[in-house]
Amino acid sequence: MKIKLNSKSPIGVFDSGLGGLTVIKALQKILPNESFIYLGDTANVPYGNKSNTTVIKYSKKILDFFISKNTKAVVIACNTASSVAYDELKEKYDVPLFDVVRPSVDFANHISKTRKICIIGTNSTINSKAYLKTFKKIKSNCSITEIACPLLVPVIEEGWANTHIANLICKTYLHSLNKTDIDTLILGCTHYSIMSHSIKNVINKNIKMVFSGETVGIKLMEYLKKNSLINKKNKGHVNFFVTDYPQKFNELAEQFLDQKLNSIKCIKLP
Amino acid sequence: MKIKLNSKSPIGVFDSGLGGLTVIKALQKILPNESFIYLGDTANVPYGNKSNTTVIKYSKKILDFFISKNTKAVVIACNTASSVAYDELKEKYDVPLFDVVRPSVDFANHISKTRKICIIGTNSTINSKAYLKTFKKIKSNCSITEIACPLLVPVIEEGWANTHIANLICKTYLHSLNKTDIDTLILGCTHYSIMSHSIKNVINKNIKMVFSGETVGIKLMEYLKKNSLINKKNKGHVNFFVTDYPQKFNELAEQFLDQKLNSIKCIKLP
């Protein structure tokens, strides 16, 4: 189905849960006039421990929902869905589609001077080798290190980001980086930007952090400009949807977005 | 179906994942001649975020598996399944059935002198109010405090139990207990016994810890003795089954059991 794109249409952004809200925050900064529809598939969170087939099935339902809302672009603000479902969604849907892996890989590959890059992520992201494969795909000459940091998401979701305990956990995971000449650190999980102070505290000052929200935001902005789809008139806003209403959602969402959510709709996808 | 119980038959023990291995460890100590079949339903871990209907469905499949193995008793070594599925399983199955909530409640109610008891558990266990309801059911006159400690399971599964970070996390959750006259602490999650050193380090010396594995072990031993089902001749062993083979399973399982696992079979339940 050919979609007619309109500069006034909203942009769809989805994640399995809350993490993608950090992407919304970055996108709002880069594209202040755009309106967004955020969908957190909280009934099926986390995607990381589900099969590829299942993640693709969920992602398709979300794309159908966004298409019904006439979105002019869709951002997959979830590392698992980005690495597992992007290719199939790209083939099936006509809507301009953006993932969070490729933009960070391109950006890191562009800025690294020592040609040594580290990626941190959840167990499932690191085990999927999604970042490694993408560096290979772009024929990067960088040497890549990966570190799984499975405690960061639970610590963030407990509301303990950037506390003394968070600093100690980040130090345990990342202190070895300081003995290398890695100069670029990809935060390969949309949650991790919440923890950026703790991470910054424990890594060498010369190591630059790469955030998914910012890198996909730049790609999206470039695309909208090139295709005259930038919304110049509106004052942007976000409509929030979830598929289940978890405890503490509001409280955590505020922490992720640095703003109060006006309203969240709970919907069932078919 | 009436089951013929035999003292030489094994005892079935199940959990959604690894936590129930701490129950196995306690049962082996209390009942050294018994043989056990352990099933970790790792394909469906965790049960805590699933609906009651789903948890009951999974538990029934596991009970059917145990019945096919001719078990003489079954221990539900999972807090969620204990609180959600016990009553229905008890009604449907003839095999003697033991949960991990009631034995700890009975034991704590028996030993508390100040009549003030605290329960710690995962978010889902605390939100379910399973322990509170059980204290009401036995008409206990104790006053009950509950503290959700959602980071303990991820810290244990990361292999960081009883480290400096684990001590700090336990202190953050539990330091307020020391200002009360609570004298009994129920570890309402089968994982938590792994963290007992950290917990002990931060609570007052007069607070006694109650472990699911030990309390259900005593109830099981009493039952087997009363019904002449104690295995007096065999040297006990455990057969391990999982429904999916997660990374790090062996490594974690050794940490939970303090012994090497001879072999683990991965099975699909119908």
Give an overview in words.
The structure is a homodimer of 270-residue chains. Chain A has 270 residues and is of the alpha/beta class. Chain A contains 11 helices and 10 strands. In chain A, helix 1 packs across helix 10. The longest helix of chain A is centred in the first third of the chain and has 17 residues. At the A-B interface, helix 7 and helix 8 of A face helix 7 and helix 8 of B.
Distance between the termini of chain A: 20 Å
* SSE arrangement of chain A, N to C: EHEHEHEHEHHEHHEHEHEHE
Fraction of residues in β-strands of chain A? 15-25%
> Helix- and strand-based class of chain A?
alpha/beta
Mean pLDDT of chain A: 93
How many helices of chain A in DSSP terms?
A: 11
Q: What's the count of strands of chain A? A: 10
- Which percent bin holds the helix content of chain A? 40-55%
Oligomer: homodimer
As residue ranges, the low-confidence spans of chain A are: none
Strand order of the largest sheet of chain A: 4-3-1-2-9-10
